[in-house]
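Hi U.,

Before I forget, here's the chain from the pilot set. I'm dumping it here mostly so it's searchable later in email.
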Amino acid sequence: MTMTLPKSIFFCEVGPRDGLQNEPATLSVERKVRLIEGVVDAGVRIVEIGSYVNPKAVPQMADTDEVARAIRRMEGVEYRALVANLKGVERALASGVNKVKLTVSASESHAKANLNKTPSELIDGFKSCTEFARSNGAEVSGAISTAFGCPFEGKVPPEKVAEIAERLHDLGITELSLSDTTGMANPRQVYDLATSMQEMLPDVRWFLHFHNTRGMALANTLAGLQAGIVRYDASLAGLGGCPFAPGASGNVASEDMIHMLHEMGVDTGIDLDKLLDLARELRGWVGHDTDSALLKAGQCCRPIPRDGAAKQ
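Structure:
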């Protein structure tokens, strides 16, 4: 039996937002701009540049307005940002962002810990967000966090995810992400949920967003590919985590995901050597080791120098 894989995928770099929001230290605007422009130079065509949320809750994202105004925009690249409410949408559009992402948790406990509202209350408030964004020429996407599991409630029933997806779809949102916020997903679960969601809402462009908390992110990516999903998020150097989800470690490393895809013959349009150089630079900025296999071992089929150090 032949493994069925897509010929190519769409890749979104979420490091500037999800990767940095849980770091103890805040990078300067200049370094954030360097990170965003660097991944674009490597061939990434979708970048999540930051979030417009309460700066007291997530101080690492307090300067997203300034970052958005400072980046050099490249034609054909989508610069998106996370927003939590209408005020966030207004800030995003005022600073030149033309695609906003609304997120809601499939878990009531996580939703309350994150934004102090139930999932239903959050979605009720999204109508004004979508109307304002579209009336001002901006696109809207959505994300369902804790879609596979919650640190407070355990496994999340697929029916809850489906209910939220349908409500977001009713708002006219036709791009949705299934997010494994705390790395609780397994490949069978990913395959089953991805398959059922595509069958339920076939006009939706589905993203998958994995954290590597329990070492299953790349296996889950493969399960998503086999289920027919062609859009993925990842974070450079494997940085990341959710401030409101205990135990949530970093996202799957962008370079690890791109490397696996290239080794399997799946096209990404990304220069992996450039991405790795930037990942090393980012690791130096944050000042600690990260959950990136390639930064430790290098790429497959590359010679190892006699001193034992991996040649990149």
